[in-house]
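Example record for the data management plan.
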Amino acid sequence: MGTIPEDFTAFLYWVKDTSEKCWADDSNADDWSYKARWQGLTQGQIDETEQKYQISFAPEHRAFLRILHTLDRKEKIEYTDGFEEEAEQITQENSFFINWLEDDEEIRQKLVWPFQEVLRDVLHEEHPFWKNSWGIRPDTKEEIVKVFTEIYKQSPPLIPIYSHRFMVSDPNLKHRPVLSIWGTDTIVYGWTFRTYILNEIGPQYLGTTEPIFDEEYQEFYPEFTAEARKIREDDYKYDASKTIPFWREIILSYNTGWSSFGMQSPPNPHLESLKKSMLNPAHGNDKED
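Corresponding structural encoding:
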């Protein structure tokens, strides 16, 4: 794999060269990515995109768009529509990272998607999501939407990157992480764009994992290389300045989100009780024959 560059521009060119070499390998001849190439944007195209969608790319995002941006073909994902033997085989084609020159409909949908996804959880009939810091939850759906909309306006702009990954794009923030958003179940997918890319495509296309043999199961499994692991660990270390207006509270609402800020989640009384009951079953439950 070689050394992963620390300088971000050098890193992006390393990603370009490493991934394109991977895709050019004849062993990938039957894969959708065979001989794929990145298609960067010009500065003029980036400026026009910002004007078209009334957005502002962070400097690191602009660098990514200039050097990488997207591939010269669509990513093909195959899956079956159901679990039956006769289930239809479906092939879905998506841009490998947002194509800002062609994906107009998807881009416009993604620009409002985080708001709509969280609102869906807020309006959930059985388990509605609502934070105490937002005040008393209104009684009517119309008022809930109105109050939540005003609260959401306090959040930083989010720019779509790939799938449900979004870049926090606020020049006033010290840290601008990439978020993986699935409703309120949101995590930080990288506090820097560099770590995000390593997380997103590193294992598959950049050689950031190595095979480790499991003696117990007699099989190999992938594990991050020492270099990639250190980059990830350093990126997720606790830092009090790592804050994201609105989203920090959302992320910390789930146990899975605490590691995003380099913290351990607080004990869950229900899970702790369940764990104890499994380890120490109550006496007298066994019946005599």
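Summary line stored alongside the record: The chain has one domain: 8-277.
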